[in-house]
C-alpha cells in the first residue's frame, strides 16, 4: 500500500460543553483528506504539545463560558500565557489561527478566544488566518463552516511560507558557514512531516433515496454502500450527495408520497416539518459532513443490581442538602410558576456562600425518558447490566478517549440516568452518524438534509431553535436504530444546572435559598404539551409534596424532606461593592431578582451591625407580568424600602394597566425594566458616570439583558451628549472596571 508523508499541524481545543472539542475532532478527522496530519490535544494536556518549540502551524478552537471565562480545560493554559514574566518574543516562532466560540446573548462575547489571541500577539506569534468569531446566539455554523472551509488552504499556505523562510535561512547559513552545512541547532523543516499514514480512501456514502417508502433493514454499523453519484471532491472534506430524481417535489420521512387524490385533483402538499422537506432542499445535491468514525467499544455484562450507586456520578464531591422549605411564589394562574426552595446546608461547611454566588444542582434524566431510550435501544432487559466501555481498536478518530464519566462499574440504567444528557439537541455529527442506522430511505434522506450544508436553515428551524431532544428525534424517525455505542459517543455529559443564591448567610445562617421558574416547552407535532425543563421539572416533582402556597403555614406539611445534591459556584465579580458607601443599581426582573435578595439581606444586616457606617444608595429595577400574579418577594422588597435598606424600588408590570397605551394614549406606563431605567436616566447615569457606582443585571440573556444594554447606551448618549460609538466605549470601560456586571442566562 502506498505510503504518504503528510505535513503536520497542531490542533488545540478548550471546551466547556464539548462544542469546541467536537469541532476540533471534526477538523482532525478530515485533515488527512486535505493531505495534512492534525495533532489534536486539549489545551490543558500540555504534556502532549509544546508551543515553546513548535514550528508547525497551530490552530486553536476555544469556547467561552460563564461571564467571559475560559472553559475549565483551558484555564491553566490561559493562566500560563498571561504570565507577566514572558518576554515579548516568547512566541515569535509561532504561527497560529484561532476559532473562537461564544454567544452574543452573554457579556464578553468570545472573551476566552480574544484573550488567547491578544496574548499570542503580545508574545510575538503571527496569525496565518483571520480569526473566526462564531455566535451560538445566531448559529455557530454561520461562521464555523466557511472558516473551516478556508482553513485548509491557509494551513498549506502557512506551511509553504514557513518552509521557504527556513530554506532561505538554511541557504544563508550555508553561504555563511565555512563548511557549507546548516546549523544543527536549527529545527529541520522535515520535522513538519512526522506522520506516515496509509493512503486514505474517501468516505463513501449511501446513494440518494428513492421515492419508495420501502424500509430497508439498517446496515451494520460502520458499513457503507458505494455511492452512485458522487461529485468531485469538495473542499471541506465532506461528501456530496446527489440530488433526488428530477420532478420529485418533496421528501417525507414518514409516508410515501401520492401524486393525487382518488378523484384526480392534485393533493395539497403538506408544509415542511422536521420530517419533511420541500423543494429546493428536497431536490438539492447535499454536502454532508464527514461520517464521524466510531471509537467506543461497548459491552454489557450481567451483574447483581445490589450495591448499585445512587445519585450523581461525582456524589462524594457534592453536598446532599435537605429541603427545609419550599414555597410557590406565583399564583396558580400565572404563566410561569416560580418556586422558592430553602436548603439546610448547616452540615456542609463547604457551602459557605456570598451574595452573588450561584450553585450547581445535579438532577437525573426523567425515568420515563430513560425507559424509552432503553426500549428504543432494545436493551430494556439489560438495564442492570454493567457497562464496559473501552476504545475501539484501530479507531480512526484522532485523540479518541473514553469519557471520564463512563466509569466501568456502573449499570446501563445508571449511565442513562445520571451521566448522559439524553435530552441534548442533536448536533449535525450525530445526525450524520444516525443516517447509517436508519432503515427507511425517506428518513435517511431527511437526516442527510438536516446535517447538510444546504439544509442549515431547516436544521436551525426544526432542531436547534426548538430545542429538539435526541429522544424526540428518534421518536420522529422510527426506523432509526442506533447502537448504544453511538449514543455514548455523541451524547454529552449530563450537566448540573446553576441557580443564584437568593439569601445571605448573615440573615439565614446554615440555610441556602434559591428561586426558579419551571421551564415549559410549547407543544408541537412531535412534542406533547406539558414537557418541562429537565432540572426545573425534576425539582418541581421533588418538592411538590412539601410545597407551601403563599401564606400557608409550615406546620401543615410534614413529609420527610427530599435532598438535593449541590455544589457551590463562587462568582468573584458579581458581588455587592466592597466599599459600603458606593451606590449601586440592581436590574433583576422575574427570577433575576434572586441574587439581589441576597445583596439586600446582607446590606440590611450590615446596617444593623454598624449603625454609624455610611451606606451608599441602592436602587432595584424589578419587572413581572402582573402585580398580583408574579411580583416575587413583594413583601420582603417593600420591607427593605421601609427599613431604608433599599433606597428606590422601581417596579413595572408588562401585562397590567396598559389599556390607555393600547388606546393610543401618549403617556404610556413603563412595561419593562429598561423603560423604568430610561425614566430614571439622570440619577442612574449620575451614579454610574459621576459617583463611581455599580450596576448589576441578572436574568434573561436573550432579550432583557440586550434591552437593558441598549437603554444604557441611549442614556449615556443623552447624558454625555456623545455618539453611539462613544457610548459603547463608556459602557465597555464600565465593564472593564467591573462596575457594569451581568449574571445572565437563557
Ligand atoms: P432544560 O431542560 O435545560 O431546558 C432549558 C433549555 O431549553 C434552554 O437551553 C432553553 O434555551 C431551551 N428552551 C426553553 N424553552 C424553550 C422553548 N420554548 N423552545 C425551545 N427551547 C427552549 N434559573 C432560575 O430559574 N433561577 C436562577 O436563579 C438561575 N440562576 C442561574 C445562574 C447562572 C449562573 C446560570 C448560568 C443559570 C441560571 N439559571 C437560573 C438557569 C438555570 O440554570 C437553568 O438553565 C434553568 O432552570 C432551566 O433548566 P432546566 O434543566 O429545567 O431546562
Automatic annotation (TrEMBL):
One term under GO cellular component: cytosol
Cofactors, names only: FAD; FMN
Region (Disordered): 200-288
Domain Flavodoxin-like: 9-152
EC class name: oxidoreductase
Record carries keyword Cytoplasm: no
InterPro entries, per the entry: CysJ-like_FAD-binding, FAD-bd_FR_type, Flavdoxin-like, Flavodoxin/NO_synth, Flavoprot_Pyr_Nucl_cyt_Rdtase, Flavoprotein-like_sf, FNR_nucleotide-bd, NADPH_Cyt_P450_Rdtase_alpha
Positions of the FAD-binding FR-type domain: 316-577
Xref: PROSITE patterns: FAD_FR, FLAVODOXIN_LIKE
Enzyme Commission (EC) number: 1.16.1.8
Record Pfam families: FAD_binding_1 (PF00667), Flavodoxin_1 (PF00258), NAD_binding_1 (PF00175)
Any GO molecular function: FMN binding
Keyword vocabulary terms for this entry: Amino-acid biosynthesis, FAD, Flavoprotein, FMN, Methionine biosynthesis, NADP, Oxidoreductase, S-adenosyl-L-methionine
Biased composition (Low complexity): 206-226, 242-255, 273-288
An example Gene Ontology biological process: methionine biosynthetic process
PANTHER family in the cross-refs: METHIONINE SYNTHASE REDUCTASE, NITRIC OXIDE SYNTHASE-RELATED
Protein known as: Methionine synthase reductase
Lineage of the organism: Eukaryota, Metazoa, Chordata, Craniata, Vertebrata
Amino acid at each position: 500500500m502506498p505510503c504518504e508523508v503528510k505535513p503536520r499541524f497542531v490542533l488545540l481545543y478548550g471546551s466547556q460543553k464539548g462544542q469546541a472539542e467536537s469541532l476540533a475532532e471534526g477538523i482532525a478527522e478530515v485533515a488527512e483528506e486535505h493531505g495534512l496530519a492534525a495533532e489534536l490535544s486539549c489545551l490543558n494536556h500540555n504534556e502532549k504539545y509544546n508551543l515553546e518549540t513548535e514550528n508547525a502551524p497551530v490552530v486553536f478552537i476555544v469556547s467561552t463560558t460563564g461571564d467571559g471565562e475560559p472553559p475549565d480545560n483551558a484555564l491553566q493554559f490561559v493562566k500560563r500565557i498571561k504570565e507577566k514574566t514572558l518576554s515579548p518574543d516568547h512566541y515569535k516562532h509561532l504561527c497560529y489561527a484561532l476559532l473562537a466560540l461564544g454567544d452574543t446573548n452573554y457579556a464578553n462575547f468570545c472573551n476566552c478566544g480574544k484573550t488567547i489571541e491578544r496574548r499570542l500577539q503580545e508574545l510575538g506569534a503571527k496569525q496565518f488566518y483571520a480569526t473566526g468569531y462564531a455566535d451560538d446566539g445566531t448559529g455557530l455554523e454561520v461562521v464555523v463552516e466557511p472558516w473551516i472551509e478556508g482553513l485548509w488552504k491557509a494551513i498549506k499556505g502557512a506551511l509553504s511560507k514557513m518552509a521557504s523562510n527556513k530554506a532561505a535561512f538554511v541557504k544563508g547559513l550555508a553561504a555563511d558557514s565555512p563548511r557549507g552545512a546548516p546549523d544543527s541547532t536549527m529545527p529541520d523543516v522535515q520535522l513538519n512531516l512526522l506522520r506516515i499514514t496509509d493512503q486514505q480512501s474517501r468516505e463513501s456514502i449511501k446513494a440518494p433515496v428513492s421515492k419508495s417508502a420501502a424500509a430497508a433493514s439498517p446496515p451494520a454499523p460502520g458499513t457503507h454502500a458505494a455511492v452512485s453519484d458522487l461529485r468531485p471532491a469538495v473542499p471541506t472534506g465532506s461528501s456530496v450527495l446527489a440530488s433526488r430524481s428530477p420532478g420529485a417535489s418533496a421528501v417525507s420521512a414518514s409516508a410515501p408520497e401520492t401524486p393525487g387524490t382518488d378523484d384526480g385533483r392534485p393533493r395539497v402538499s403538506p408544509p415542511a416539518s422536521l420530517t419533511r422537506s420541500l423543494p429546493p432542499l428536497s431536490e438539492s445535491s447535499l454536502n454532508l459532513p464527514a461520517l464521524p468514525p466510531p471509537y467506543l467499544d461497548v459491552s454489557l455484562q450481567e451483574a447483581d443490581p445490589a450495591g448499585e450507586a445512587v445519585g450523581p456520578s461525582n456524589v462524594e464531591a457534592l453536598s446532599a442538602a435537605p429541603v427545609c422549605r419550599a414555597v410557590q411564589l406565583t399564583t396558580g394562574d400565572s404563566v410561569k410558576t416560580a418556586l422558592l426552595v430553602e436548603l439546610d446546608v448547616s452540615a456542609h461547611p463547604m457551602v459557605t456562600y456570598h451574595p452573588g454566588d450561584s450553585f450547581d444542582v445535579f438532577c437525573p434524566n426523567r425515568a420515563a425518558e430513560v425507559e424509552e431510550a432503553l426500549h428504543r435501544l432494545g436493551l430494556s432487559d439489560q438495564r442492570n447490566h454493567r457497562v464496559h466501555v473501552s476504545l475501539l481498536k484501530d479507531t480512526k478518530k484522532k485523540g479518541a478517549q473514553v469519557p471520564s464519566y463512563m466509569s466501568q462499574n456502573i449499570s446501563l440504567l445508571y449511565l442513562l440516568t445520571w451521566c448522559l444528557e439524553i435530552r441534548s439537541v442533536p448536533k449535525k455529527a450525530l445526525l450524520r452518524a444516525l443516517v447509517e442506522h436508519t432503515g427507511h430511505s425517506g428518513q435517511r434522506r431527511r437526516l442527510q438534509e438536516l446535517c447538510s450544508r444546504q439544509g442549515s436553515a431547516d436544521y436551525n428551524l426544526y432542531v436547534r431553535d426548538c430545542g429538539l431532544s435526541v429522544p424526540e428525534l428518534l421518536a420522529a424517525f422510527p426506523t432509526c436504530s442506533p447502537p448504544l455505542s453511538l449514543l455514548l459517543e455523541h451524547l454529552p455529559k449530563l450537566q448540573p444546572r446553576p441557580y443564584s443564591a437568593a439569601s445571605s448567610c448573615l440573615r439565614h445562617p446554615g440555610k441556602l435559598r434559591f428561586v426558579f421558574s419551571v421551564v415549559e416547552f410549547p407543544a408541537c407535532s412531535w412534542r406533547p404539551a406539558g414537557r418541562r425543563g429537565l432540572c426545573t421539572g425534576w425539582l418541581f416533582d421533588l418538592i411538590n409534596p412539601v410545597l407551601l402556597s403563599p401564606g400557608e403555614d409550615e406546620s401543615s406539611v410534614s413529609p420527610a424532606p427530599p435532598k438535593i445534591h449541590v455544589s457551590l459556584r463562587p462568582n468573584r465579580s458579581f458581588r455587592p461593592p466592597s466599599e459600603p458607601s458606593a451606590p449601586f443599581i440592581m436590574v433583576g426582573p422575574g427570577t433575576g431578582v434572586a441574587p439581589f435578595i441576597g445583596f439586600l439581606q446582607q446590606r440590611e444586616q450590615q446596617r444593623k451591625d454598624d449603625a454609624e457606617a455610611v451606606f451608599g444608595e441602592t436602587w432595584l429595577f424589578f419587572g413581572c407580568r402582573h402585580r398580583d400574579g408574579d411580583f416575587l418577594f413583594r413583601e420582603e422588597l417593600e420591607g427593605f424600602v421601609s427599613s431604608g435598606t433599599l433606597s428606590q424600588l422601581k417596579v413595572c408590570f408588562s401585562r397590567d394597566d396598559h389599556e390607555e397605551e393600547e388606546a393610543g394614549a401618549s403617556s404610556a406606563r413603563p412595561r419593562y425594566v429598561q423603560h423604568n431605567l430610561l425614566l430614571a436616566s439622570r440619577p442612574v447615569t449620575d451614579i454610574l458616570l459621576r459617583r463611581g457606582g455599580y450596576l448589576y443585571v441578572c436574568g434573561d440573556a436573550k432579550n432583557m439583558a440586550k434591552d437593558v444594554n441598549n437603554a444604557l447606551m441611549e442614556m449615556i448618549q443623552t447624558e454625555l451628549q456623545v455618539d453611539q460609538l462613544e457610548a459603547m466605549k463608556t459602557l465597555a470601560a464600565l465593564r472593564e472596571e467591573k462596575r457594569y456586571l451581568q449574571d445572565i442566562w437563557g
